[in-house]
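The data are quoted verbatim for completeness:
=====
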Amino acid sequence: MSVRVPAATASRLKITEIFLSVQGESSSVGWPTVFVRLTGCPLRCHYCDTAYAFHGGQWMSLDEIVAEVGRLGARHVCVTGGEPLAQKNCLPLLTRLCDAGHRVSLETSGAIDIAGVDPRVVRVLDIKTPASGEVSRNLWSNLELLQPHDEIKFVLCDRADYEWARACLAEHGLVDRCAVLFSPSQGQIEPAQLVDWILADRVPVRFQLQLHKVLWGNAPGR
């Protein structure tokens, strides 16, 4: 016997926070952006800076979320976590936000299938490196689904991570799929050191710092 799920339950998500800031990463860096941070994540990366989103949060309906995003008044919207795709109702939320006229990006670990994500969304796929502690969770089949407007991100903790990421570029032809970003893990690689490696090896990737951390440190909601 199937169990009928009440509509109010079926169309809601657990939300840690919704806030207005500037985008600190990706090709949209610097744009005023509304961030929708979903609660929960099945991964435990060693360098995670949003562990406060693992638990807690409050239930909100899709209507309430879309209304709050609209109230904050920015065209760019970033759906993040935690791992936003761990909640199945993330997919209809992404479509609703696109339908409302927003430029929507999704920050995902790449451990969950992205096939159902609305094609209008910019999918920022975070490939987990060995030093993250979660390299085994990479769902490599996701790479075949990426479009030119999507992005791949590597957060690098040490020289071994850097060399591993370079090997991934070659093995999977990543730079021919979409933009690739190399980012230093805070407190583990000096940013200038990573830039020196990239330039010395002529690696065709985009270096990025987390602008929001430069401005406000690790403050939640910024």
